[in-house]
Write a structure and sequence with these properties.
heterodimer; A: Dimethylsulfoxide Reductase, domain 2; 4 domains; 7-stranded mixed beta sheet; 6-stranded mixed beta barrel; 28 strands; about 20% strand; B: alpha+beta; Alpha-Beta Plaits; two-stranded antiparallel ribbon; disordered N terminus
């Protein structure tokens, strides 16, 4: 065929007209735009019926009520529960992110047994049999006290089951991790006698004198404290924050009083001295002082006169007098202790000195003051029946009073102090000072059983892991025990079937006890943990199961309490930071991170400022005057007696000169790339300093040297 | 019965910066509510998607006079100059992927229409918009917690705060089902508002005098005589908006007793603040 000009043009024009008229072009454009909007790899969440279930959060001792939105069987959102006695709506970021823990990449999915350096899966039956077999051997060897347990707290039925197992097995060696509640009890015991605890009525107080308590940094029951703080202005109440760093609490307070770190006890005694000297104390209250009052009064006039206190603490003498007057003259003052979140190291001198202020102004068991009352015991476990081995073992002395003493003893002794260790809801290899030596001690214990839901730092050191349900998969009573003015027990309920092959730690304990047979098994006659809880919660079970919580006590307790200040009257030495360097490294509690128990969730880590964490570098805060030649966002090396670390610098005018602040809760090393291997664990750099007289690890920070990296 | 759309709402928020503790609950509640993903490293804040972001401001003074305040920043849902709905981002979107809802005052974002030109991000004076540089990835199993109310986004699109629009839709559906004309204040609350443990965020209809947000803000319905682009200026002297004199007319108001905090809401030349501190939002000369 001949293609001439005419037919070429004709065909060409025809084609153009054809394409223009034809729908093909439009269709192709449309198809391609639809095609570019197909994202088969982007998940399409399945729709379904919306329901809400109530539960209680047990990620921290705060025990907030939660409302969980579900689509069919899937929980999709956690929110605070309105009208719950602890949080009344509102929730903290960790609770809201709770669903991320369910599917955490570091979860332990089945029971594991360590073989060499690696973990192998085993069945629950084998795991329980293995643990029971080991325990039988320990018992046969005649020293049942060599079974120890470290848990997060003493309260609650799961902890109760662990204690019951240890007792009927024949061991007194039950330990808890330091927490605000444990410090409240230690303080109450020193000043008022055994079995007592303290609550602070922050919601009603008109003058809160906080010795570094991070009231909006996660101290106590966080949401409850946030609410008390938020209502402060409307109530015309004042908050004075004594702290060496401009924390969020200090920034939000009516007045920030910078203080040399670790001298809070001295300031408290200095304020006591002014109150006594100027007769600002309540005469009626002093009638309750039983021991050591006169001795204390003489001692503080001598050693803690304003000018002397000013020298020790760096707070001006005139300010000390002013604070003392304001505090003593307020209608409902309360002095609050527990630096940061209140679960780090504290000294009894500081705890007792601050609480003595409460006793002096007679706010004990008054509205807006400090409530001193017996620890709530709402559980009714049946009396234990013990055989002779158990009796003999249980009557022996504990290896130490606190967990840090246990660790120390294990490390020091050449013979095994502990043959087997249970760890529940605690991560001592991360949260205790000098984590290296803690790991060493745990490594020395021949048989370590972890009940952790996650393969955390301590679980990694275990020989057997019996993974627990997370708080969204289990039933449990959760007592609020964090300095709250009221005493509330909440009920955590399962909102989803267990995602993995895990068990309730309570069930695991019951199974172990049953496998041990004899008198131990007799003490665990419940079929399941759920049955156990229902029976031991007896009196409050109805209200727990119907309302989701039970209020044990509310409002100011009646009656006065005796006060014994003989511990302080001897003027125990103030704990000094370890080391000889010029600067002091202090830990910072940041609401968006968690330093005890579990690690922060991916969402929580995402919210952390780039002035705290940048890439995998931890950022430390330092005053420009102290930083000298160091540049903002530059690198530096920190050296403490415990070790060295490379850090990024954040020049921060909110830091007192002479100190360096490092956040707690980073530097995890387990298998979750969203939260691990970011920054360093400040506990690696700080070593314990034991307070003589109390045995507490009281090291607030450590001496440090900084140099350009 | 038809769904009631005839009364124009103007949803807005007032955030009490004196109550805000910087705890981050609002950020996490937002991420969890709206299926916002997360990556291994989120410390590069420029590519970290946070519809609600909490800024830390300082007064710039040295120790011990330093003060800090936290400022939560969702999308400001601007009404644009004169509050006519020409928000900076809406005006520049070539795909109508973002639009102004005249019935709600909410600035929408339709992910499937967005083709990722990011003009809106350039136009937004508040950095409230985020681009998906990567496809979202959840660790194995974690997709199970995703909510069907908000579609997960894909690589190449812009996303931002929607004032939890799906909650508004749900509340309206319930009202419709129950034969009611309109929704109650408490029926439609954003995820950040309900999460805030300090009660610092108040959300509601700025057009409804019965709503708490209206009572705190007391918005002036008339254009500001000194700057005609500004409409809805608060008649509460403690309340301000961010970069108010641009005339973007945000629906997020901030409240603070502290003067330096209110001053931080805009950039002022030397001496300028003292002249207009009781009248922020005004330009000095009436243009």
């Amino acid at each position: 065929m001949k293609v001439d000009r005419r037919s070429f043009l004709g065909l060409g024009l025809g084609a153009v007209a054809g394409v223009a008229v034809s729908p093909v072009g439009i269709k192709l454009t449309d198809d391609s735009s639809i095609w570019t909007q197909n994202w088969p790899w982007t998940p399409v969440p399945i729709d379904g019926e919306v329901t809400y279930e109530n539960s209680v959060c047990s990620l921290c001792p705060g025990s907030c009520g939660l409302s969980i939105r579900k689509i069919d069987d899937r929980p999709v959102k956690i929110e605070g529960l309105a009208e719950h006695p602890v949080n009344d709506g509102g929730a903290c970021l960790h609770g809201i992110a709770g669903l991320q823990y369910l599917y955490d990449p570091a979860r332990v999915k089945t029971p594991l047994k360590k073989n060499g350096d690696k973990f192998e899966k085993i069945s629950w039956d084998d795991a329980i049999a293995l643990v029971a077999g080991k325990l039988v051997d320990i018992r046969k060897s005649g020293s049942p006290e060599k079974l120890a347990c470290i848990a997060d707290k003493e309260q609650g039925s799961v902890s109760g089951l662990f204690q019951r197992l240890l007792k009927t097995f024949g061991s007194p060696n039950f330990y808890t991790m330091p927490s605000l509640e444990s410090y409240l009890e230690v303080t109450a015991e020193a000043l008022h006698g055994e079995g007592m605890t303290i609550g602070f009525d922050l919601e009603n107080s008109d003058f809160v004198l906080s010795f570094g308590a991070g009231i909006i940094e996660g101290w106590g029951s966080p949401v409850n404290c946030f609410k008390a703080n938020a209502s402060r202005r409307a109530r015309h109440a004042k908050l004075y924050q004594i702290e060496s760093r401009l924390s969020n609490t200090a920034a939000n307070a009516d007045k920030w009083i910078p203080i040399k770190p670790g001298t809070e006890a001295d300031l408290a005694l200095g304020i006591c001295a002014v109150i006594l000297k100027n007769n600002l104390f309540n005469g009626g209250a002093t009638a309750n002082f039983r021991g050591g009052f006169n001795k204390l009064a003489i001692m503080i006039q001598k050693d803690y006169a304003p000018s002397k206190t000013a020298e020790i603490t760096g707070v001006k003498a005139s300010d000390i007098e002013k604070i003392a007057t304001l505090f003593a003259k307020a209608k409902m003052p309360v002095a609050v202790f527990g630096k940061g979140r209140g679960d780090g190291a504290q000294s009894l001198k500081e705890l007792a000195a601050v609480h003595t202020l409460n006793c002096l102004v007679d706010n004990i068991n008054k509205e807006g003051g400090a409530f001193v009352q017996p620890q709530s015991e709402y559980l009714e476990f049946p009396d234990e029946s013990m055989d002779s081995i158990a009796d003999a073992g249980f009557s022996k002395n504990k290896a130490g009073r606190y967990v840090n003493q246990l660790i120390e003893k294990v490390n020091e002794s050449s013979k095994p102090v502990v043959e087997a260790l249970f760890v529940y809801n605690a991560n001592p290899c991360y949260s205790l000072h000098d984590s290296k030596s803690v790991k060493q001690a745990i490594g020395k214990i021949p048989f370590v059983v972890s009940f952790s839901s996650f393969l955390d730092e301590t679980a990694k050191e275990a020989d057997i892991i019996l993974p627990s349900h997370t708080f969204l998969e289990r039933l449990e009573d959760v007592p609020s025990c964090a300095g709250l003015a009221k005493s509330v027990v909440g009920l955590t309920k399962p909102v989803i079937d267990p995602v993995f092959d895990t068990k309730h730690a309570g069930d695991a304990v019951i199974l172990i006890a049953k496998a041990l047979e004899g008198s131990i098994a007799q003490n665990f006659e419940w079929e399941t943990y759920d049955e156990c809880l229902e029976s031991v919660a007896g009196g409050i079970w109805d209200s727990l199961s119907e309302d989701g919580y039970a209020i044990i006590s509310e409002g100011a307790p009646s009656g006065s309490v005796a006060v014994n200040v003989s511990f302080l009257a001897d003027n125990p030495a103030t704990i000094q930071a370890q080391g000889d360097y010029e600067l002091t490294l202090i830990p910072i509690d940041n609401m968006r991170l968690i330093n005890a128990g579990i690690a922060a969730s991916p969402f929580a880590i995402k919210t952390v400022s780039d002035k705290v964490l940048k890439g995998s570098d931890i950022v430390v805060e330092i005053n420009p005057l102290t930083a000298k030649g160091l540049k903002d966002r530059g690198y530096a090396t920190l050296t403490t007696p415990m070790g060295t670390a490379r850090v990024m610098i954040n020049l921060n005018e909110g830091m007192m000169p002479g100190i360096i602040g490092m956040v707690e809760g980073l530097g995890h090393t387990f298998d979750n790339k969203y939260v691990s291997n970011k920054g360093i664990n400040v506990n690696d750099l700080i070593g314990p300093v034991i307070e003589s007289g109390s045995g507490l690890d009281a090291a607030f920070g450590i001496k440090v040297k900084i140099s350009k990296a | 019965m038809k769904q009631n759309n005839n009364k124009a709402h103007k949803f807005g928020m007032v955030i009490d910066l004196d109550k805000c503790t910087g705890c981050g609950s609002c950020m996490v509640s937002c991420m969890s509510e709206n299926n916002v993903p997360f990556k291994e490293d989120e410390s590069n804040k420029k590519d970290s998607i946070t519809w609600m972001s909490v800024y830390k401001l300082t007064n710039g003074k040295s120790f011990p006079d330093t003060q800090i305040v936290y400022m939560p920043r969702p999308c400001q849902h601007c009404g644009g100059k004169g509050d006519h709905g020409h928000s900076p981002c809406v005006s520049v979107c070539p795909a109508v992927a973002t639009d102004y809802g005249y019935d709600t005052g909410i600035v929408s974002q339709i992910y499937t229409r967005c083709f990722g030109c990011r003009y809106c991000m350039g136009a937004c004076p508040y950095h409230a918009r985020y681009f998906n540089w990567w496809d979202p990835k959840w660790p194995e199993g974690m997709e199970n917690y995703l909510s069907p109310d908000v579609s997960p986004r894909m690589r190449g699109v812009v996303e931002k705060c929607s004032f939890c629009y799906h909650r508004y839709q749900a509340a309206r559906d319930i009202a419709y089902y129950e034969g009611r004309d309109d929704i109650e204040e408490h029926e439609y609350q954003t995820a950040c508002t309900t999460a805030c443990p300090a009660g610092a965020i108040v959300f509601g209809d700025l057009n409804n005098p019965a709503h708490q947000v209206h009572q705190i803000v007391k918005p002036d319905p008339h254009p500001d005589p000194r700057n005609k682009h500004v409409v809805g200026k608060s008649r509460n002297p403690k309340v301000f908006r961010l970069l108010e004199r641009l005339g973007t007319n945000p629906k997020i108001y901030y409240l603070s007793e502290r003067e330096w905090v209110r001053k931080a809401g805009d950039n002022y030349l030397d001496g300028e603040w003292d002249k207009i501190k009781n009248y922020h939002g005004a330009t000095l000369s009436n243009d």
